Amino acid sequence: MAFRMRVNGKQLFGNNICYDQWTQYLLDQGFEIDEDGNFDGYLTDFDGALHVLESIVMDLESQRENQAAAGIKDVKSLFDLSDIKTAVTAQNAGQGVIHDNLFDQLFERVEYGFLFLPLMFYECCRDMLEYAPEISGATHRIRSYKLKEGCRIHVHGG
Q1: SS3 letters for 36-59?
Q2: What are the pLDDT digits (tens) for 116-127?
Q3: d(C-alpha 2, C-alpha 6), whole Å
Q4: DSSP assignment of 19-37, as one string?
């Protein structure tokens, strides 16, 4: 059975993936993680978790930059979404690509793309968040959120 990391019941990372930064963050938050990497608990700091996910994305991008600099072919930036137009226009030209329209291309990128981990985390928590402009300066974000009173983020890995 595959390991899945879920936030409020929604799988956030790919099957059998958990990042060291995330594991360390959970340990710092008091989570107990067994020898198989399984955990279950609640977070009360949305912004702290969001920051860790942003760091993971930027680390993944740095790894890709290093691979490209080392001459590894077919490595592209997480931020390069230019192939969406090619895929959509190729299908429209009868070249038979699996994802045949703009919606499907965008959906796949947001739902499964590493670049969008922070956004997907926000989506997992959206119903329990409230806009918090008073913390924008501390977070350096235009859109800052905090958990509504009494809410906690359920995080499960296993």
Answers
A1: CCCEEEEECCHHHHHHHHHHHHHH
A2: 999 999 999 999
A3: 12
A4: -HHHHHHHHHTT----TT-
